Amino acid sequence: MIVIAHVIAITCYIAAAGLAAAPFARPIPAPVRGVVALLSAGVSVHLVALLAYAWQFGEPPLTGLGPALSTAAFLVAVTLLAVEMLAHEVSLTLVTAPMAALVTIGAIASPMLPSPTASTGGASWLGLHIALSFLGLAAFATAAASGVMYLLERRELKSRRFGAIFRFFPPLETLDRVNHLAIVCGWIALTLGTALAIGYAIVYRDADHLKVIWGIAAWGAITALTVGRVVAGWQSARAAIWSSAFFIVIIALYVAFRAIGPRAGEFL
């Protein structure tokens, strides 16, 4: 049941990305309703999978590699769906829906089991930290995706080609607003999640050094972006470049820690 629901969600996410790419193949209006419907179906089925996991194991899917990746993918998809419904655009689906699908594939390829330490003291505290951190990372991913799209469309405009990207992508101002809002929301969520993690580590004397380093790096990256946008007044293009670059660095750091850590393959 859990695996089947995940497979259906993956299919919906990939189908949404394929439908969103249709205007690149032929000159048709952006299929907003179809993409939103597919994303809604994927999110709904994904939620069923997470609820089934919670029913089977008696705890939320926040600990253990498979459940954590599934929750992260679900939050990315929910964030994408909310943005597309509010903006009445589907271009962000081209980047973010495949991301949600890949993370979901990673989830079902990993053991869908809770962490052995999940039942120890402070589980609610730890669960809230994980939920907020995943929400912050989903917003970070949205900021990076909108940044990449901003740079692609800006390049199209500067070259005066006015091809499919120019016709299909939302205005630069819209992408910039999405980037700005996602950065600020991601910083708030990651700050709260990091604070809870520090408190948990102090109270329960339980901390993984690699996780601490990665968490601080992610928080530091989105903090730098927030300061740049809100305080330093970064222009749109600069914010787009740095949000994309920082997200790539954080993902690369995650992959590296999973590969070379003392418990290779078990990081996060």
Structural write-up:
The chain contains ten helices and no strands. With 268 residues, it is mainly alpha-helical. The protein has two domains: 1-116; 120-268, no CATH class. α3 packs antiparallel against α4 (65-87) and α4 packs antiparallel against α5 (93-109).
Task: Give short descriptive properties of this protein.
mainly alpha; 10 helices
Q: Summed up, what is this model?
A:
The protein has 268 residues and is mostly helical.
Please specify the SSE layout and strand pairing.
Blueprint: H1 2-20, H2 22-25, H3 32-57, H4 65-87, H5 93-109, H6 123-159, H7 164-168, H8 172-204, H9 209-231, H10 236-260
Helix pairs in contact: 1-3, 1-5, 3-4, 4-5, 4-6, 6-8, 6-10, 8-9, 8-10, 9-10
